[in-house]
Amino acid sequence: xxxxxxxxxxxxxxxxxxxxxxxxxxxxxxxxxxxxxxxxxxxxxxxxxxxxxxxxxxxxxxxxxxxxxxxxxxxxxxxxxxxxxxxxxxxxxxxxxxxxxxxxxxxxxxxxxxxxxxxxxxxxxxxxxxxxxxxxxxxxxxxxxxxxxxxxxxxxxxxxxxxxxxxxxxxxxxxxxxxxxxxxxxxxxxxxxxxxxxxxxxxxxxxxxxxxxxxxxxxxxxxxxxxxxxxxxxxxxxxxxxxxxxxxxxxxxxxxx
Length: 257
Ligand SMILES: Nc1ncnc2c1ncn2[C@@H]1O[C@H](COP(=O)(O)OP(=O)(O)OP(=O)(O)O)[C@@H](O)[C@H]1O
Hints:
Layout: E1 12-23, E2 26-37, E3 41-46, H1 52-60, E4 67-72, E5 75-76, H2 82-87, E6 90-92, H3 105-117, H4 131-143, H5 159-172, E7 177-181, H6 189-203, E8 207-211, H7 215-221, E9 224-229, E10 232-237, H8 239-244, H9 246-253
Parallel strand pairs: 3-8, 3-9, 6-7, 7-8
Antiparallel strand pairs: 1-2, 1-4, 4-5, 9-10
Helix pairs in contact: 3-4, 3-5, 4-5
The chain binds adenosine-5'-triphosphate.
Adenosine-5'-triphosphate (ATP) binds near residues 49, 50 and 53.
């Protein structure tokens, strides 16, 4: 079959088709299909161990699926490595902090940008002379609202600023699709507000898949919500419909009324 998958809507940025991942006998992700559109923030929620991070790993290419297909911008990428998917426009952030604490905010962004364009490089050229990576890093710093602290050592940032920096590092690789794993974890109210504002802005130019436990935040920013329980999708709909969804209320929100 041809790599090119015909898509009726150009707006579709990323698709999972019947994606599964087994760890021995454990079905961590089972037959998940999901569509992520440009300009959309699509949240994936579910209880601990529901398979959300595993799903992100399958989409980003960090884990191969046991079954199913992943399609990025109309092209099947199931067999592509994570770096190859990143070069094709798929960016991700992690639950754990991946910032280099001893480097400045700007240096962290430049490193992330360099990873994106390394193929086009002469490795003997010092990093700071790579104009494309520099420009991408500066743009990412500005979009993430971190210009004022660009020269600060990352280790001196607040927790919320570090999470913002992670988003900036993701943006520095110039992705069209952002996979964000719990960007609000451990944030106070003010930091949460700042991050939600940032996500709202980023939505315009990106397709965003957000895994998040903060339900208030999810229902405020999400255009669509997919609910996972025990590796499976039990509902995928607009936020208002998810709120009313009986199975979701029983399985996840804790009541059936
Ligand atoms: N590398 C692995 N090897 C074995 N089991 C794994 C592995 N990664 C995840 N699992 C298991 O797969 C299931 C789904 O885990 P996953 O981390 O995807 O859930 P999650 O929804 O992201 O949970 P949380 O909200 O707690 O982060 C869990 O039972 C977990 O223990």
